[in-house]
Amino acid sequence: MTTTLVTGARGKVGQSVITRLHAAGHAVRAASAAPAELSVPDGVETAELALDRPETFDAALRGVRQVFLYPEPAGIHELVKAAEAAGVEHVVLLSSSSVLGPDAENDPLASHSLRVERALAASDLTCTFLRPDAFASNAFGWAPVIGRSVPVQLAYPDAHIAPIHPEDIADIAVAALTGDSPAGASLIGRSVTLTGPESLTFREQLAVLADAIGRDIAVEHITRAEAEQQLGHHMPAPMVTSLLNLWEAADHGPATVHDTTRTLLGRPARTFAQWARENAAAFTRP
Ligand SMILES: NC(=O)c1ccc[n+]([C@@H]2O[C@H](COP(=O)([O-])OP(=O)(O)OC[C@H]3O[C@@H](n4cnc5c(N)ncnc54)[C@H](OP(=O)(O)O)[C@@H]3O)[C@@H](O)[C@H]2O)c1
User: Fold this and answer.
1) Same-domain check for residues 146 and 278
2) 270 CA distance to ligand 1 middle (Å)
3) pLDDT of residue 2
């Protein structure tokens, strides 16, 4: 049986990919920068692999034919070489729809994934690029504020996105890795843009969350400068600028909704309301 290496195994999508492949009887190796922190099903091997530390690559890739890859440009050229040497045939990359944006090469968020796509495209490996839009799970960032019942402060409350449920990304990744696309369309070697089923503003997402937790959530409109200061506590300044530019641009009308989940899986994409119901408990803790 061929082994699939799943990187970023502590991540939301990585964990779901591991569980699904294992349940379907595939040999899986869960790779993480911190393997001791992993909780994987019995029968799943674990390995240390930090995408920015090439000395961890060879052992993690031994005997592997496919890789589910989180994007990290720091060690990507070394990873490609190690994967080719190990006999890897297919890589499924968790990329981002941001690579399709204007000036992606010079945008700190988009170039992170784009540099990885380019290194893979220049290799001998067969590559499948999954390009999701914003994850529904980004809403976890609001959980501490909502839990304390204070207003959610946003510079662009009416920015539209089409949030995708991480489980839909995992389902599509598994279809690419197994070659079993329920809708019959092979994904191997393709680049696909993935979104949720509807365009929602941040304000509308918060209303959906309010419904899920059974109480109102107040929204407070703040200035861009105030948002810059707040976000600056969690990420570098160029990333903050890039994110705020993205939301500013999204402030002018509905986000494009792609029907890739239906086309690839033969069923509708999971809604943000479903994600909110499944994760409501995270928004009720002070
Ligand atoms: N969030 C979005 O809206 C979005 C949109 C498009 C594309 N993407 C791409 O998707 C990828 C995952 O996005 P995400 O933001 O949702 O992250 P995530 O799935 O939570 O994964 C974060 C990664 O960070 C590592 N990590 C470090 N410390 C961790 C901890 N304490 N708990 C869990 N993971 C930890 C994990 O890798 P190890 O296990 O190896 O340490 C994990 O794979 C990103 O590379 C991003 O470029 C995200």
Assistant:
1) yes
2) 20
3) 87
